[in-house]
Amino acid sequence: MSRVPLAAMLIAGLMTYGGWIRQPAFIGTASTAKGVSAEERRALVALFDATDGNHWKNHDGWLGPVGSECTWHGIWCESRVPEPTMAVLGLELSENNLDGQIPEALGDLIHLQSLSLVGNHLSGRLPDPLIQQWLAGSLEVAAEAPLLTDVSEIDYEYIASALLCGRRRAVLRSDGGAALYTTRCHNASPKDRRTFCEVKTGRVYGEPFAMLAWLLEKNGFFAMQSHYERSISDSAFVSTRATRGGKSYDVVVYAGGGPSELWAIQMAIEGFSNSAIEWDATKILPACPLWEKSQPPASH
Fold first, then answer.
1. How far is CA 197 from CA 160, 161, 249, 293, in A?
2. CA 59 – CA 80 distance, rounded (Å)
3. What is the pTM of this model?
4. Across the chain, how many H-helices and E-strands are there?
5. Burial of 82 (0-12, 13-18, 19+ CB in 10 A)
6. Which of 24, 65, 148, 170 has its CA 20 to 30 A from that of 192?
């Protein structure tokens, strides 16, 4: 199976990360007849130095002589025509004990098409040129969400005011945690109004979460009003909280108020919660934890 562009998944909400598999590790070319440009070599050396390369699990070939870069572990190169050098197209360094921050110089790998860094001990964010390439769809990235976004949590709740069992809440976190709370009715008899909470827990992967976070960013969520409403009875409340850089932002909507950008965000979160999470456990609680009872947000 091949990977599917993440933007398409978020818009349609049709594909799951569980259906994707990672590609095999990239292998450096056997040819040493020509190496990468001096600028790309400097970027690779900067990556090695900034992430404690001497203690990587595998650093075979790294920092070898000029012209040998395409034989270094985890590097995939391709000849650039009519340029007389090779170019780095892929870096596969997942689960390789990288420790530190990705240097800004890595953004100088302008031909990069695939970057796999998942399973290391990295902090900070990828250089902005790489993030922009990833958002544009020209760079495939396998990495934990904090390398791609400053958003650490998205907390979303939908309540249909006229329905006893019309409440659902999704909590998604950049550390991979995910929970879905749904209020269910016992329905033991026609007059039974008892409810319970069905709780699903699972895992959300880094790149899809980060793409969803960027959808909020690009649709202006963090500059929106805290409340939107229309004068309609028996409608629905939709509440969204996103935590970015340690600060929480709330937007509460009643009866479909708010701009179209907010509607797009809500639909993306709904689709994401239904299709992009690996659910692995379900339990029952007497009642669901309420969105408004969670940590109060800082003011906008």
1. 16, 17, 26, 16
2. 25
3. 0.83
4. 5, 14
5. exposed
6. 170
CB 111 within 8 A of CB 83: no
267 in Cβ contact with 12 (< 8 Å): no
Q: Which residue has the higher pLDDT, 24 or 69?
A: 69
CATH class label, 151-293: alpha beta
C-alpha 40/C-alpha 109 separation (Å) is 6
Measured torsion, CA atoms of residues 29, 27, 149, 291, in degrees rounded to the nearest 10: 160
Would you tell me the crossing angle of helices 206-218 and 260-275 to the nearest 10 degrees? 170
Show me where the domains of the chain are located: 6-143, 151-293
Q: What is the Rg, in whole angstroms, of the alpha carbon atoms belonging to the chain?
A: 23
List strands edge to edge, sheet with 151-160: 227-229, 247-254, 236-244, 151-160, 167-173, 177-185, 195-203, 278-285
b (16+ CB within 10 A) / e for 96-114: bbbebebbebbbbbebbbb
DSSP 99-136: EEE--GGGGG-TT--EEE-TTSEEES---HHHHHHHHH
* Domain 6-143 shares a fold with domain 151-293: no
The per-residue pLDDT for range 119-159, each reduced to its tens digit, is 999 998 999 999 999 999 999 999 999 999 999 999 999 99
What's the first-to-final CA gap in the chain, in angstroms?
Answer: 43
Q: Which fold has domain 6-143?
A: 3.80.10
Indicate the range of 39-43, 65-69, 231-235, 239-243 predicted with least confidence.
231-235
Q: How far is Cα 279 from Cα 182, in angstroms, rounded to an integer?
A: 14
